[in-house]
Amino acid sequence: MSEHDTHTTCQHAHDHEAGETGLRASRRDVIKGVVASGVAVSSTGYVVAGRPTEAAAQTAGAVERLVTVNVNGADRRVDVLPQETLVQTLRYKLGLTGTKIGCDHAECGNCTVLVDGVPTYSCTTLTQRVRGKKVVTIEGIAGPNGQLHKVQKAMMEEIAPQCGFCTPGQIVTAVALLNENPKPTEDEVIVALSGNLCRCGAYNHYLNAVMRASKEA
Amino acid sequence: MAKLVGQNFIPLDMEARVTGAAKYAEDFRAEGMVFCKILTSPVPHARIRRIDTSAALKIKGVLGVLMADEVPQFPPPQHPILAKDETFFVGEPILAVAAESELLCAEAIEAIKIDFEMLPHVTDPLESLFPGGPNARSNGNVAGAQINLQVAKWDAADFAASGDDKLPMGKPAEEWKYGDIEAGFKASKLVIDETFVAGGHPHHSMEPRTTFAYWQGEKCFLHVSNQSHTAAVPNIARLIGMKPEDLVMIAEFCGGGFGSKIGGYPNMAVAALMSKKLKRPVMNRLTRDDEYALGLSRPTFQARIKMGFAENGKILAADLYVVQENGPYLGAGDFRAAGNCLSMVYQPESMRWRGLPVLTNTPPVGPFRGPGENQFTASLEPIIDKAARALNIDRVAIRVLNSPHAQSKIGADRAPVTSAFLKEATEKASQMFNWEERKKKSGQKKGTKLVGVGIGQGYHTAGSNGFDGLLRITPDGKLHIHTGIGNLGTHSHGATARVAAELLNVKWENSIVERGDSRRGLPWNSNQAGSLSASTQSRTMYVAAVDMKNKLFDIAAQMLGGQPADYDLGEEKVVSKADPSKSITFAQAAQKAMELGGKYVGKEPPKDINPVTVDAVAKIAGTGLVAVAKDTLPRVGLTPGLTTTMAEIELDTETGKFEITEMICVADCGTVLHPMGLGAQIRGGNIMGIGQVALERRVYDPKLGLPAAGKLYQAKPPSFLDVPKNIKWAAVEKPDPSNPMGVKGVGEPVVGSGAAAITSAISDALGGHLFNRTPVSADMILNHLAGRPQAHKPLQINTV
């Protein structure tokens, strides 16, 4: 069992709910918009629409554009395209650049955020599918006055991050784990974090940090 | 005195890393920002006959294209910014398109028509060297740094003589030797001759590189993902075609580089030149696929080694030939580093090295953390084990016997070393690992599992000199430590800055590290690469601190009377030696410096500093007491970083997978600057080594030249599930005499020793079987156990 599996399950749940909330963009359109269209144009792997475009206009009407997403405790009204991924909305519409895009293909976990408390790859989650849900990003992990979460403190004390690019994903995943399972074993931490790649290989330090945090009140 | 060196500390930028506040290149915005994307080659080798962008340019919102003839040109086979006339690998950028959104960029790219004339391609050096074999470039198949582009073909007789499983050895591009290897082999009790393939693997930095650029007049503001800072400025300016002093480089954080982002890279120029053309801020984000194609890779070796051993295990002669898969450009120096590594780590009494970098239609290769050394020791250590078994010598003993020491000489020119304590590292690792007991488990069966114990050694140069230090005390008494070393993620910019704070007796909380942005006044420092940061930066901090002390004592004498020699440092103040009640604070000294002006505030910098430092000093001149100096301290000989890793594995004979049950690494890195930071480097490096030799995949279809393992899920860099929970580590803690603080680097050797310990342990679990190939896949292990032939041909590459 890995985080990949968790996310897949989570995505299925979204599929069901999407039907009820009237999302009608066809799967084919979505894939066309989100995934690279061929080897000759590999650079089109991800797409950001900074403002309404002609392509957007063509799909207008298929789905409501103005949606409300609860991000880090605040309702945010945001204009999103049907094929827009959550990480695009967070980074390019809401200015929350702490969530990182490592692969844009649900392979690395750098973009992990919490959706209703569940670690979710925001690069392969459509913003339309988190309407009315609670999204927590790395910027929402610290307390209201900026006091660091015990996982953040432990990450600092264990010098867990190296380059730091995967760190936001590691932290939100660890926070979700400790919310569900406050006293995990080392093996449980490893399984929970296994969907978050770290090329610096800081795994021992991330593990130690989560174990340290689990011992804090 | 403030004791900082050798103490743990939480790096200053750590809070930003855990809160999401850390800004990488893609996290910046500017008013009016537009995007640009690159159109990349879908084919491994072709002539570009015609490009039609007319339909793309008609799309509303598309702002323009950047073509190869609009960017600075560099003589082939240098790595170009955009491919012109001929394209050499799948994923090579041919042009760039800018538009209001990336969606529109993508639409425009789909509307561009390119007429390619397909040319023969090659992904295997030996295929290219065969008479009549294809060339990766239409005018050559061999090139490298200091090796001119040429066509090189070996004789069919060379191939026939070697058979299928030995490397043929035709004419090399380079060679060197010392001693008499023939006499050495003749005198040897045991001579071995092994051919091996050491597979390369891409860097896969987590951050796909982004460049964000905008201009104000002649000045270019460039947000980049780069390991080094000031050392990269001249090259980046060259790529863009501008003056270095007009480049404002902003690189506060770098999402992993491992050698792939050292001195700037051609793609950085795309956003800069597009921005100049459109007069708008331009962001160019690479996708993961682009990062695979442009993010470099460790090159693959096809190599052969002959070694002669005396009865006691001493290596009397060694003869190494390395053919390197070099990508389509100048490539990497790994093939040379392998020879130096053999000379350093195993100290053969006589030796010959030969090397040949062969061009291939695969993405560019470049330095990857332990370039050349890692491929070499990971391949050689199981072979050393074989020799030890044949001679009935303990595997630790044979390594200790051949280890370098302070009087050792290196390479063709028999250069001296500044220090070498590999023997001490191996002995310490043996104690921690309990080698004498643990080696008895070698080959033991535990249910379906076989136990293997392995030893690996790692090496990389780990010291340089000649860079500049720059310090400033502002009138509020704060020490500003200016560092141009970069922020790769090793935390060494902080660890080395603490050298200056300690030498000047300033509390760390009263020290401010100035870094990450050219406007802060950053001196000329080394590349954050080559395991150099710790050593070079502790030197520049030292020389700048000496200059600062001299200026402080000089000012104290002017304010309180007497001579500068009458004063000493107190805690953030200058104190009279004779009368400790007489003192001035650093704040008072800085205020006095402001009155005095001239050399005290950086308006008369020394003549020997680098132009980049001159520019940095000019930026901060007049804002406090400024100390600036070039590192002219002596350093005679090569400074090696050396490590030993020991590992125990349990290899499952039913799945071919193994679990690492113990892993211990000991480093010879001189004085330890930052223990926890060192631990993080050792563990992360060992893990990267595990990936290199046992997990990661780099596959090309030899018929089509297409990558088959470009995605992370295909390439399989190590995950949480693949690595030991707790890699143990220690340092030899013997200072290097050539460094004023005793420091040597170690970031790279730890990868090589980790990799080599694993190949050694796999071989040991299988009774000393030599795969002579990395990575070792589970399939290879199962085929071996079942007595089945392997799926690859002996010298085939890019198969796993």
List keywords for this structure.
heterodimer; A: 217 residues; alpha+beta; Ubiquitin-like (UB roll); DNA polymerase, domain 1; 2 domains; 5-stranded mixed β-sheet; 8 helices; 5 strands; 11% strand; globular; disordered N terminus; B: 800 residues; Aldehyde Oxidoreductase, domain 3; Aldehyde Oxidoreductase, domain 4; 7-stranded mixed β-sheet; 6-stranded mixed β-sheet
Query: N-to-C terminal Cα separation of chain B, in Å?
Result: 55 Å
* CATH superfamily annotation of the largest domain in chain A: Beta-grasp domain
Largest sheet: spatial strand order of chain B: 3-5-1-14-11-12-13
SSE series of chain A:
HHHEEHEEEHHHH
Overall description:
The complex is a heterodimer of chains A (217) and B (800). Chain A has 217 residues and is α+β, with helices and mostly antiparallel strands. Chain A folds into two domains: 138 residues, Beta-grasp domain (Ubiquitin-like (UB roll)), CATH 3.10.20; 66 residues, [2Fe-2S]-binding domain (DNA polymerase, domain 1, Orthogonal Bundle). In chain A, strands 2-1-5-3-4 form a five-stranded mixed sheet, with helices on both faces. Chain A is globular. With 800 residues, chain B is of the alpha+beta class. Chain B is globular. Classes of the chains: A alpha+beta (217), B alpha+beta (800). The interface between A and B is large, with 75 and 88 residues.
Summarize this, please?
By secondary structure, chain A is α+β, with helices and mostly antiparallel strands. Chain A contains eight helices and five strands.
Please describe the topology of this protein.
The complex is a heterodimer of chains A (217) and B (800).
Chain A: H1 3-20, H2 27-34, H3 54-59, E1 66-71, E2 74-79, H4 86-93, E3 112-115, E4 118-121, E5 134-136, H5 150-157, H6 167-180, H7 186-193, H8 203-215
Parallel strand pairs in A: 1-5
Antiparallel strand pairs in A: 1-2, 3-4, 3-5
Chain B: H1 14-19, E1 34-40, E2 46-52, H2 54-57, E3 62-66, E4 86-87, E5 93-99, H3 102-111, E6 113-118, H4 125-129, E7 142-144, E8 147-150, H5 156-162, E9 174-178, H6 181-187, E10 190-198, E11 210-216, E12 219-223, H7 233-240, E13 247-250, H8 268-278, E14 282-285, H9 288-294, E15 301-309, E16 315-325, H10 334-346, E17 350-358, H11 373-391, H12 395-402, E18 409-410, E19 415-416, H13 422-433, H14 435-438, E20 445-446, E21 449-461, E22 468-473, E23 479-482, H15 492-503, E24 511-514, H16 533-560, E25 567-570, E26 573-576, E27 583-585, H17 586-596, H18 611-620, E28 625-630, E29 640-652, E30 658-668, H19 675-695, H20 712-715, E31 728-731, H21 749-765, E32 773-774, H22 778-786
Parallel strand pairs in B: 1-14, 10-32, 12-13, 16-17, 23-24, 30-31
Antiparallel strand pairs in B: 1-5, 2-4, 2-6, 3-5, 7-8, 9-17, 10-15, 11-12, 11-14, 15-16, 18-19, 20-21, 21-29, 22-23, 22-28, 25-26, 26-27, 29-30
